[in-house]
Design goal:
Length: 242
């Protein structure tokens, strides 16, 4: 699963790495401890006339389907299981029509050891952004305002027998947020691609190759408190075993 991550890059850096465009007034809040229900940047593609535009938007993390009666539905939908998303009422419409990517610098995961949990920070070795496969929806509030929300797709983690970081990820958690390579990003977001279920199979097939470029290290338990939010959270803990 993915329940906490880091996104502290400036809007200009995000636009450049995603090869996207953004409104001049768009502001991003730096966060080293992003949690569900907070506002996060997402990247999506829209057809405007005959031209395809890749855009950066800000969405609430926790997908709220259009039919939901209240915003709190999104609290339970910050991740979408790739194995069932195309059939689940919460996600199936977005799988067909509203696919996005969620940019992160890295994410946190907690390794269970008996009654204890050790937090680790997973990120790219080169420091560039990771783009997770995501979904998005629009939901209309009672006051007439529209709220954009998002969810991150997940899949089974690699086998513990895989070499390098893939094997380490297997020992960290049994679920993995699905990362996208550059070519797959475009296909996943393209609104002209109508076979959402088929695309899910494709992003799952390439996920481990993308994740093999990652690295990970243990961090301080302070990350467990969402009120803690500073660059120090991603620093390596002195007792790290990786």
């Amino acid at each position: 699963m993915c329940g906490r991550y880091v996104m502290a890059k400036a809007i200009g850096d995000l636009v450049a790495e995603a090869e996207a465009e953004a409104d001049d007034n768009l502001e991003l809040r730096q966060s080293w401890n992003v949690a569900p229900t907070t506002d996060v940047p997402i990247v999506l593609e829209r057809l405007i006339g005959d031209d395809l535009h890749r855009q950066v938007h800000v969405a609430r993390w926790g997908l709220v389907p259009g039919w939901a009666k209240e915003l709190s539905v999104g609290v339970r939908a910050f991740n979408a299981r790739s194995e069932t998303a195309s059939t689940k009422p919460t996600f199936r419409s977005a799988v067909k029509k509203r696919r996005a990517v969620v940019p992160v610098e890295g994410y946190y995961e907690w390794k269970k050891e008996g009654s204890k949990k050790r937090p680790f920070y997973v990120h790219r070795e080169d420091g560039k952004l990771i783009f997770f496969a995501g979904l998005y929806e629009w939901w209309k509030d009672e006051d007439g305002s529209w709220i954009l929300s998002t969810s991150i797709m997940t899949m089974d983690s690699p086998s513990a027998e895989e070499p390098g970081v893939l094997g380490e990820l297997a020992g960290l958690h049994d679920r993995l947020p699905i990362p996208l390579g550059k070519e797959m990003m475009g296909r996943w977001m393209n609104p002209a691609e109508e076979d959402g279920e088929g695309l899910i199979e494709q992003i799952r097939a390439q996920a481990f190759d993308v994740a093999s470029e990652w690295t990970m290290h243990e961090v301080d338990t302070a990350v467990g408190n969402v009120r803690n939010n500073s660059p120090e959270l991603i620093e390596a803990h002195s007792n790290s075993l990786f």
